[in-house]
Amino acid sequence: MILLAASTVLFMSGALGSILFQRAALKKIWALGSVLAGSLLGLIPAFQVLRNKITFAYSFKETLPGLKFQFGCDELSAFFLIPLLGLSAGIALYAFGYLKKEKHLLGSLACFPLLVAAMMGVLVAQDGFSFLIVWEIMSLTSFFLVTTEHGNREVRFSGWIYLVTTHCATLFLLVFFILLFKKTGSFAFQDFTLLSSKSYLTGFLFLAALIGFGTKAGIFPFHIWLPHAHPAAPSYISALMSGIMIKTGIYGILRAVTFLPPLPLWCIESLLVLGILSTVLGVLYALLQHDLKRLLAYHSIENIGIIIIGIGLGLLGRHTHNAAIEFLGFAGALFHILNHTIFKGLLFLGAGNIIQATHERRIDQLGGLLKFMPLTGITFIIASLAICGLPPFNGFISEWLIYMGLFDGVKDLPRGPFSFCIASLVGIAFAGGLAIACFTKVIGVVFLGLPRTKRELPLQEGSWLKRLPMIILAILCFVLGVMPQLVLPFILPTLPVLGLKVPASALNLPIQSLQTFSVTFMILIGIFILIALIYKALLLNKTKRLAPTWDCGLREPSARMQYTASSYAEPLSTFFYFLTGPTVHFQTLKGIFPKTTSFKTHVEDLAERNLWTPFVQKTVEIMSWVRKQQQNQIQNYLAYIFVTLILLLLWEVWVGI
Amino acid sequence: MEWVLIGIMLTAFVTLGSGRLSNCIRAVALQGALLSLLVLLPSHSFSDSHHVFLATISFLIKTIAIPALLAWSLKQAKIKQEVDPTISLHLSLLWGGILLVGAFSGAKVVSLPTAPFPFLIIPVAITIMFVGFFLLVSRTKALTQVIGFLILENGIFLFGITLIGEFPLTVEMGVLLDLLVGVFVMGIMIYHINKTFDHIDTKALTLLKDSE
Amino acid sequence: MLAGIQIIVLLTFSPLFVGIITKTKAFLVGKKGQPLLQPYYDLLKLFKKDVVYSTTSSPVLKIAPLVGFSTLLMSFLLFPLFGKAPLHFEGDIILFAYLLALGRFWALLAALDVGSSFAGMGASREATIGALSELAFFVGLGVLAYSSDSLSLDSIFLWKLGHSAWQPVFLLLFATFFLLLLTENSRMPIDDPNTHLELTMIHEAMILDYGGVELGFILYRSTLKLFLFMTFAVSLLWPTLLSFSLASLVFLFFKIAGVAVGVGIVESTLARIRLLKIPQFLIANFMLALLALLVALSTGGN
Predict the structure, then answer these.
(1) Measured between beta carbons, which residues in chain B are less than 8 angstroms from residue A578?
(2) Strand, helix or coil at A592?
(3) What confidence tens digit (pLDDT) does each residue in B92-137 have?
(4) How far apart are the C-alpha atoms of A445 and B115, rounded to whole Å?
């Protein structure tokens, strides 16, 4: 506890130092140094908690009547603290290199340690009241970080969207915690377990939590801030937000599961449906994006969907008393959380490198970067393999666990849950296929082929400070894939917190399979090396020539004739026309000597187009009517407030909540 | 018997996914043949004159008469061979999948005795009715409407033959007759629509509404 | 030991079945056709040739065929060709599917590596087809898992020697996997393996810039893949014999040769589907798999 407190103090002082000092170098050292030191310091207790299974808690004295601030760290918190602090440390290193020449990004740097501290606070808060406070700090600091380049109109717009959505979500959380407070008479998490299990109330509470936390996590219809905020933020912040901040939403859902009574079946089913929607639509919209970071943002939605399916599957297993499915679902979800932090962090850092080197986010303007930035390219390829769930990388293992649970569900569960398992199975499998299409598109267009535009800038990787965290993350992708049993000591202690009583016999089979993966992947790598040797042997004594790419007899092919990302995704876009509905901007050619024209498409996602835009428009209409009614006199406003308070009081007295 | 039932289902899907009218007609004819075969399959049905009679009649009507009629009107109307769906073909197929799942989960609830036939007959009957409805809703040409109607009727027929033991066959014969008349009317209508408007798109019928 | 035999049998005999398909096709159009062993001659020739690389290319171009080849060998180790699979554990069915996906990932990258618009076009189509065929594939695997109550290829294909193969479920599954076989191996109604027009190619367009040894690996891989899918499909109807013997080997060959002839007949009788219609074909296959699932459920499965 002391170490956690110390690291919080470090974060705070870093932020303070970063504000107080005017010189850029000092600002940077204070902020980033404190994040680095604080994170490394905070990792120690997190590991201790998981290893020795000693949880600790601390509650302050009653500050307000009926209110106690309680903080503590159990296994679930510790499990989330590890990716949070680990990734933050890596990102702090990366940021040292990233911010070298970018003075204009320093303005909001002080928020970076604050954000990390706030996220840590979210994970260790043990009562609703302090949870909401740190949650709000997290939202605000991340808002300031997103709007770092506030000179840009687009960035301001994205920032507003983020701010509004995140506060709407907090509203639901407020309702969630206040209802719990009313029913149990306390804000402390451990007291929430006393809630009597009325299924409609549980369902309602769960829905509130799902919307509140789901918005932060980026579950499908509530995800709209994600694809706006990520491209707007500086890359290292995107890595932090996508890598770990959205996971605090998942943490919230898991935490809610720990203290809510057993959930009714329809809650679990709606969770699964949202998971499937996020998975499939997330990757589908990712495929159609032209902006690298926006694409990655949509991919986060897909991965969150997979995690949600895992959690839903675990709950389904609990509901049907099937310990194996419960284990596979929760373990898969937890493992995927860890994995997603690793490879999504890596992907965003890679994107940061690309953007810093080329000043370009549009995929279709890039090309051939592998030759100039080999390290970025290789790590990006590794991360892509991992995010597509391909062996022998870590993404495969977590998806495998979830698949196993789903197949088990197909085998063993009764008719109703069975159909959800089949649907999830199809959803994840299809998303896997689309993810392959999506990442081959990114790699192929950005890293392979020839540069599509001429650049004056010398293309460089950047300093070693930038490369080191990327190398570490890439190695982690591989190691956790080949030796998945390394992660078990983190996952197994966490499961009992989620209410999983792990019967050793039920788990033998999957754990054994997990260990066989080491052998299997070694064989795979062995075969690959063997084949490579045979290939080398076959190439001995042979002449190797270089020749231009086959152009079908075309004279003077140019780099602009390469297949673009948009054309690559076109068949799928056309096939899913009813979901994608791309907007086309095109002026048809007219006359004998037509003027130059351009062709542009862009895709707005379904939720934004058909749900939120109309909703916001209606709201604006109503609100502008309300605005016309007001007479701009302070007395009137006071009267409104007074009347509202009276009404609320009466409601409280007569009805209660 | 499960084979025949699955065949019936597959023919329904062919009509959903096929882009050519003549293929649809062929699929419907095949479906009729399979249906007639199905009537004969339970043991003792060859000795039962009711069954043999029903099979023969339904074969004559569903496999020969109506498809021939449809093929004739297709030729007469000299229309394009394509289906012109309002919902694209692959979406139709996906909808078919949804209907399929719906039918199978609904079949549990219906729980009818299916005595000589396997249980599969109920979900197949429901699916086919659904598909028939779907074709009626999603296709514009009058000819495809007839096909949809036919498939719908085949579904009802499937339901009907589970009751073959208890109910007099006159009910079923009534249905068949009904259908034949319906198709004749449709055929004549198609012929006339075509003669008057030069095409058989039912969308054009909306022009007949009172103008304001 | 068994693994060794399996790999050797596989490497030696897989091109033969490509020969059988070609021969069947030639026979059906009344030609004498290539000699049965032509695929072997082709491979030998390619492995002897020098190599030419595109100036645009990066190492990805060279790595991709090797990855593809080794993933395929790996997936064969998971498959009970005769007797038990050399490598099997609960859940290898998913690894099997993802190994194939890994091969596809690299093949797509290699196609995009040379920066040719033809290869890009092929890759784009292949990615679409790949994504859509996952639907039928995974539902098919789900049905298998449900009806054999197991998640390992080994026990799926060995579950009961005397299982009544001609249950509707298995015939539907066979149809599903046969169509997948045609799709995944770029066979006729989807893609014409003999086409010489860049604009209509799918698989061939992706490998336009390969030659020599690398092309040899790619062609070899495609014969292996064909062999794998044919075995997969046919094992649904006639499960593998339990122990390894000469008899089981001969039995296996006859089964696969049968499917090869079947593929040849299908390829000769069907016209190629328009590119725009391919997704519809795959969706139809998905429906077939879904139907198999529902039939398996309502007839009780196991």
Answers:
(1) 91
(2) coil
(3) 888 888 888 888 877 766 666 666 777 788 888 888 888 888 888 8
(4) 62
- Range list of H helices, chain B: 2-17, 21-40, 49-58, 66-77, 89-110, 121-138, 142-162, 169-197
Cross-chain Cβ contact C291/B9 below 8 Å: yes
Query: What is the C-alpha radius of gyration for chain C, rounded to an integer number of angstroms?
Result: 19
* C-alpha neighbours within 13 Å on the C-beta side of residue B190: 25
Cα separation of A525 and A519, whole Å? Answer: 10
CA distance C68 to chain B (A): 31
* pLDDT reported for residue A83: 92
Q: Which chain C residues are within 8 Å of B6, Cβ to Cβ? A: 168, 172, 291, 295
CA dist., res. A387 & res. A74, Å (int): 29
- Residue A597 is encoded by which pair of tokens? 């024209």
Return the closest-CA partner of residue C302 out of C174, C164, C172, C138: C164
* Amino acid sitting at position A584: V
ipTM above 0.90, yes or no: yes
CA distance A440 to chain C (A): 6
Residues 6+ apart with CB under 8 A from C252: C81, C82, C231, C240
Question: Is A73 strand, coil or helix?
Answer: strand
C-alpha to C-alpha distance for B128 and A556, rounded to whole angstroms: 58
Q: Is C188 helix (H, G, I), strand (E, B) or coil?
A: coil
Assess C3–A contact: CB distance below 8 Å, yes or no: no
Which residue, among B82, B93, B120, B131, would best test binding to C if mutated, counting the most C CBs under 10 Å from its CB?
B93
Distance between CA atoms of residues A473 and A379, nearest Å: 8
CA distance C25 to A563: 35
Chains with 3+ CB–CB pairs under 8 A to A are: B, C
Angle in degrees, CA B195, B197, B203, rounded to 5 = 130
**Contacts of A258 by beta carbon, 8 Å cutoff, 6+ apart:** A76, A189, A497, A498, A499
Q: Which residues on C lie below 8 Å from A546 (Cβ)?
A: 52-55
In total, how many domains does chain C have? 1
Q: Which residues pair with A72 in a beta bridge?
A: A57
d(CA A457, CA A607): 39
Q: What stretches of A99-152 show up as alpha helix (H) in DSSP?
A: 111-124, 128-146
Is the distance from CB of C122 to CB of C203 less than 8 angstroms?
A: yes
Measure the CA–CA gap between A321 and C237, rounded to whole angstroms: 35
Provide the mean pLDDT of chain A: 86
SS (H, E, C) A4-55: HHHHHHHHHHHHHHHHHCCCHHHHHHHHHHHHHHHHHHHHHHHHHHHHHCCC
Q: With 70 as the cut, is the pLDDT of residue A456 above it?
A: no
- Lookup result for tokens 């021939």: B68
Q: Where are the domains of chain B?
A: 2-208
Residues A444, A448, A454, A458, CA torsion sign: positive
**What is the domain range of residue C294?**
2-298
Instruction: Tell me the three state secondary structure of residue A500.
Output: coil
**3-class SS of residue A289:** coil
B95 token code pair: 């909808």
> What is the dihedral sign for C-alpha A413, A419, A420, A423?
positive
pLDDT score for A306: 95
Give the tokens for residue C40: 């072997």
3-class secondary structure, A556? coil
CA dist A650 and A416 (Å) reads 45
H helical segments located in C149-211? 153-158, 168-184, 203-206
